[in-house]
């Protein structure tokens, strides 16, 4: 199975390494593996979750709202997750 380094993941996702570290630190994504020297390694499922976080952030959700949205799904961005998130984002834009 392919494992991603934090640098490769940051480059592929368009985020900075610092942002990926922050998402890891606050529990939005978690590297399931570490090398002997302590470097994070991300699995395809964790990469998918980072892209979900990015997508929800683009809807103008704060990180806590992203965490709540993803905690109620089975790791897929389903209608039951996206519709309330879209509603929140739309309401913010109207203000």
Automatic annotation (TrEMBL):
It holds the Pfam family MerR. InterPro entries: DNA-bd_dom_put_sf (IPR009061), MerR-type_HTH_dom (IPR000551), MerR_fam (IPR047057). SMART domains: HTH_MERR (SM00422). Residues 3-72 form the HTH merR-type domain. Keywords: DNA-binding. Gene3D superfamilies: 1.10.1660.10. The keyword DNA-binding applies. This is HTH merR-type domain-containing protein. The lineage of its organism: Bacteria, Bacillati, Actinomycetota, Actinomycetes, Pseudonocardiales.
């Amino acid at each position: 199975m392919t494992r991603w380094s934090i640098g490769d993941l940051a480059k592929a996702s368009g985020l900075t390494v610092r942002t990926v570290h922050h998402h890891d630190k606050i529990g939005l994504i978690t590297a399931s593996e570490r090398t002997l020297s302590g470097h994070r390694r991300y699995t395809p499922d964790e990469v998918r979750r980072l892209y979900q976080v990015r997508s929800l952030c683009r809807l103008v959700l704060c990180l806590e709202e992203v965490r709540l949205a993803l905690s109620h799904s089975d790791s897929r961005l389903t209608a039951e997750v996206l519709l309330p998130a879209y509603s929140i984002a739309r309401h913010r834009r109207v203000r």
